[in-house]
Write a structure and sequence with these properties.
0% strand; mainly alpha; 105 residues
Length: 105
């Protein structure tokens, strides 16, 4: 496997693959005044994988490489995630998920 340079030191394809195999997928934060996680049920399996990579700090190219999909497909998944989770960008997504509970494996 060839080495691909990444913009974030210490974060490579192996790290992303390890994360995808081992880390639980975070749930959506509960809706105001409820204990439920409604957005979780609307995320596809691939959107959950992209979300996990996003929360680990991967950029679109890194996600595309790790998931063996096109960068444009990653961008589409990101747009869908932002819409479903009611955020505008990665920063808001990270803030919303900071300290959020994780679903079991």
């Amino acid at each position: 496997m060839s080495s691909i340079p990444y913009s974030r030191p210490g974060f490579g394809l192996c790290s992303v693959r390890r994360i995808l195999r081992s880390a639980p997928v975070p749930e959506a934060p509960p809706a105001a005044g409820t204990d439920r996680f409604p957005a979780e049920e609307t995320l596809t399996r691939q959107e959950r994988r992209v979300l996990r990579c996003l929360l680990e700090g991967a950029d679109n190219r890194q996600i595309a490489t790790a998931l063996a999909i096109a960068v444009e497909t990653v961008k589409r998944h990101c747009r869908n995630l932002y819409r479903k989770l009611d955020v505008q960008n990665r920063k808001q997504l990270a803030e919303r998920y900071a300290g959020a509970p994780s679903s079991p494996g």
